[in-house]
Amino acid sequence: MKMKRILTALAVPLLALFLLADTGFAQRERGFDDKEIRIGQWGPQTGPAAPWGAVARGSKLVFDMVNEKGGIHGRQIRYFIRDDQYNPSQTMAGVRELVDRRGVLAFVGGVGTAPGMAVQSYLRQNEIIWVGVCSGAEAFQDNPWQWNMWPSYFDDGSLLAKFAVENKGYKKIALFYQNDDWGMDAMKGINRRLKEHNMELVAAVPVEPIERDLSSQIARLQSSGAEAIIGIVAPTQAAIALRTAVSVGFQPQWLHSYNLCDFALMNHITDGLWAREGVITSAFTDDPNADTPLMNSYREAVKKLAPEERWGIFYMAGIVVAEPLVHALEKAGPDLSTAALRDALDSIADFKGIGPRITWSKESHRPPRELQIWQCGPNGETIVVQDWIENELSME
Amino acid sequence: MPFGQLLIEGLAMGACYGLFGLAVVIIYKTSEVVNFAAGDMAMFSTFVSFHVLTVYGAPFWVSFLAALAFAALLGVFIEFFFLRPAKNPSLLGLIVITIGTQLLLAGVASWKWGAEQQAFSIPFSYQVTYEIMPGFVISQWAIAVFIIAALIMAFLYFFFKHTKLGTAMRATQQNKHAAKIMGIKTNRVFAFAWAFSSVIGVTAAVLLSARTILDPQFMMEPFLRAFAAAVLGGLMSIPGVLIGGGIMGLIENFFGYAWPTWKPITAFVVIVLVLCIRPAGLFGKHYVKKV
């Protein structure tokens, strides 16, 4: 008799726990109701990587514009940004909170390889849709719950080399790269392209992200006799390299990765050398000042909805990753569900916002393989020297 | 190998490291504390100069003087409020306080000026270059670095050898209690040493930022190099530190040219080797305390 009472006493809280857990699960499964759709993103809003935080705020502009027009099939988008300071453990905390407590339907963007890697398996286990992680790392490519937007570094290197050889006719090309996966992936792309032309890099000089004195690297690049240098480095190292080169009278043509296509920023931190030396970069958006109806609508929306924001490339990146998600939500129709959104994403074909043209299918969620090539004009303006071009070479 | 270029650039960067190493050495000379906040104190003061220059639109020299004044105050402030209140401090305890100060300064600077990189220009441009002989290109910036480093070193040498305050600082380092008995106000000496170190630190940092870039992390790597230069030259020797800086710059540049992948670790290999072979550094005298 006593045993029975103990068991009953235990069963009540256990049952309650079970029921509560079940409601939690049901909420997580849906991520929306009749009035709202919940979307999340993480990104460094404070700390050393804060400049990249603009991505998460750029996506907000797209959702605010949608909400202003009445939402998607009558539902408003409720958007959550979690500041992770580019610290993977904080990314995990923010993501868990959004999944478990807020119950989001999908994540969009998310800056950086390391923070993304930290939450990848968690999001996959929970079957949360994730569109456009801001990293070109290969590790993100085979997740069935991820749809990728960020161009791969292999394609970036390959297309920069293609432009240098085919459009500019350079015979001696050197590489200045960050000594990690980013630099190595791009180097593979460059070598693959140069092989097509029976060429080789005249020098490949590594740099660590913390280094500030680049004199020996520049001396090595200079003595290689390079006419053009492809740079796969962070803004700081690119700026210091350019300054150092100028200070020893070395003026090759610099071609940098798409991470450096924010000409306003680069011109600012190089005392205007970026413009004076006419630096070339690849790019993953349309010209920020293009006079197209879509671009104009965004620029006007920024003035109205987020006047404190700078119309910079990281901000635009946030728009680029949010566009296909909004498009898929519209396609999924009023009977929204995770499965419906998934099908809608899988059937996106030839979709064009202000980024590259996207086609996804059930079999492939890989990012677009096309980029533009820009040159910084004498007054810091963007000159599109090569319209969208697709990399036709594969890694093998 | 572009010998001339590596030599000039190596010596110029080395002079900056050496100059910054002096900031570390001055505090070490008086209190035997290695100041791990030196880099971020200099970073913070450089941002003050940048702020005066860009926000108030003041000429460079005004902003630089403001930074020097701020640096001196910052040094005194940190000594007075962070180090002095420590109860029965051990040397290690004081060093940990400097590490905490470094984190605090880095955080405040990121909050106030943001993490985005800034360009900081000084009147000595790295863009104006002279070819003194074939293969030897020197920029205005490098000339300024050599002259300023030489002037500061000459001044310090004179200061520590021939002024009362300099002698008092050396006395305080050798024996704090004896110095006190002889009538030296050791607390004031410490405060002065922190101010002095901070002023030299910001001078080096302004020169470095003009050549590299200004952001809240920009002194992290130079601090490590400067520390290596100071260990190499001997933490007690003023000319030793500057020569150590020069050697450091040259080793890094020539090694970095020959084996770029190994460049970042050169400084640390140098520290380890020196500590193994000559713990007091190339020019330092090793004091043995008698029990």
UniProtKB/TrEMBL annotation, chain A:
Gene3D superfamilies named among the record's database cross-references: 3.40.50.2300
Signal peptide range: 1-21
Sorted UniProt keywords: Signal
Keyword Signal: yes
Residue stretches making up the Leucine-binding protein domain: 36-379
Listed CDD domains: PBP1_ABC_ligand_binding-like (cd06343)
Membrane as UniProt keyword: no
Pfam family, one: Peripla_BP_6
InterPro entries: Leu-bd, Peripla_BP_I
PANTHER family noted in UniProt: BLR6548 PROTEIN
Family: Belongs to the leucine-binding protein family.
Protein's UniProt name: ABC transporter substrate-binding protein
Automatic annotation (TrEMBL), chain B:
UniProt main location, coarse: membrane
Protein family according to the UniProt entry: Belongs to the binding-protein-dependent transport system permease family. LivHM subfamily.
Name this protein carries in UniProt: Branched-chain amino acid ABC transporter permease
GO molecular function, one term: transmembrane transporter activity
Keyword tags: Amino-acid transport, Cell membrane, Membrane, Transmembrane, Transmembrane helix, Transport
Single GO cellular component term: plasma membrane
Pfam families assigned: BPD_transp_2 (PF02653)
PANTHER family to which the protein is assigned, alphabetical: ABC TRANSPORTER PERMEASE PROTEIN, BRANCHED-CHAIN AMINO ACID TRANSPORT SYSTEM PERMEASE PROTEIN LIVH
Any one Gene Ontology BP term: amino acid transport
Topological relation to the membrane, as annotated: Multi-pass membrane protein
Annotated transmembrane regions: 6-28, 33-54, 60-83, 90-111, 138-160, 189-214, 226-250, 262-281
Matching InterPro entries: ABC_transp_permease, BCAA_transport_permease
